[in-house]
């Protein structure tokens, strides 16, 4: 029997929101909560979490979602791991779908699914057909709660330069994580199957308003396509923006992201 383990990342008082994620216990599902604390602890682990033998809480100090996810990966024990946050919701059939997908596709190390908003509608337009990462359609990107994968030493760490809580790049850690997995030879499959419900107001949707998101996009493009490839894509992307937007300011932030990733790459 394969086990599915949810890797739920939360920070500070977010621990109080995690019990609503739990469904009735079943033998093949576990929950690992990585609780990051950025300040003096003023909250206790909710009693309901302590009472469940299918729940583990691991604590860490600091800030940064990528570091929090790495902490969860370090403590994971399930056969199949599902990235999760403290504002996600699930149904029993979603867990069945995930486990069945990995049983049906033994060639896949990672499977990326679809997410629904809290009204049951797709978070965004998704491709209607399955594909492997190397054949992905133009414009496809991934959110953390869509990603499940087999536990393996080959699974990469999250790049702590990216993501919520980082100093400069406000998102992008999922795309880098998936890309690094691909570079390690892991097979990444997309299936048009919903497996989670969550708030559609993610950090990445704030591109036009957030310099940190704009810098992250430039940095992701540089990481994946090199400096020249990223620069050309940033120029094209900026020129294609519709409406009255500060194109030069956005382009400058995109280029700052390219410079940052070049400067900080070992």
List keywords for this structure.
266 residues; single chain; 8-stranded mixed beta sheet; alpha/beta
* Strands side by side in the biggest sheet: 3-2-1-4-7-5-8-6
Largest sheet: 8 strands, mixed
Tell me the distance between the termini.
Answer: 41 Å
**Low-confidence segments:** none
The Cα radius of gyration reads 19 Å
Oligomer classification: single chain
Helix content: 25-40%
Distinct helical segment count: 6
What is the succession of H and E elements? EEHEHEHEEEHEHH
The average pLDDT value, as a whole number, equals: 94
**What portion of the residues fall into strands of 2 or more residues?**
15-25%
Shape, per Cα inertia axes: globular
Q: Helices and strands: which structural class?
A: alpha/beta
Quantity of strands, as a count:
8
Helix and strand arrangement:
Elements lengths: L3 E8 L17 E9 L9 H5 L3 E7 L3 H11 L4 E6 L6 H13 L5 E7 L14 E2 L14 E4 L22 H11 L4 E10 L13 H29 L7 H18 L2
């Amino acid at each position: 029997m394969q086990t599915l383990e949810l890797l739920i990342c939360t920070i500070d008082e977010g621990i109080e929101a995690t019990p609503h994620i739990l469904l009735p216990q079943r033998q093949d599902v576990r929950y690992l909560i990585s609780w990051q604390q950025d300040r003096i602890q003023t909250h206790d682990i909710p009693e309901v979490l302590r009472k469940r033998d299918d729940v583990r809480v691991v604590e860490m100090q600091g800030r940064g979602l990528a570091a929090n996810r790495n902490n969860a990966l370090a403590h994971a024990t399930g056969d199949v791991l599902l990235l999760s946050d403290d504002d996600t919701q699930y149904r029993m059939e979603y867990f069945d779908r995930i486990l069945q997908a990995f049983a049906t596709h033994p060639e896949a190390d990672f499977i990326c699914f679809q997410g629904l908003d809290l009204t049951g509608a797709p978070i965004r337009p998704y491709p209607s057909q399955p594909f492997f990462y190397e054949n992905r359609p133009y414009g496809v990107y991934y959110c953390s709660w869509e990603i499940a994968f087999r536990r393996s030493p080959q699974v990469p760490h999250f790049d702590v330069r990216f993501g919520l809580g980082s100093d400069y790049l406000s998102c992008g850690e999922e795309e880098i994580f998936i890309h690094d997995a691909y570079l390690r030879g892991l097979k990444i499959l997309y299936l048009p199957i919903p497996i989670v419900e969550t708030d559609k107001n993610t950090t990445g949707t704030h591109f036009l308003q957030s310099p940190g998101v704009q810098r992250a996009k430039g940095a992701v493009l540089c990481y994946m396509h090199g400096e020249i490839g990223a620069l050309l894509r940033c120029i094209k992307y900026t020129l294609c923006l519709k409406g009255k937007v500060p194109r030069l300011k956005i382009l400058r932030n995109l280029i700052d992201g390219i410079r940052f990733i070049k400067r900080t790459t070992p």
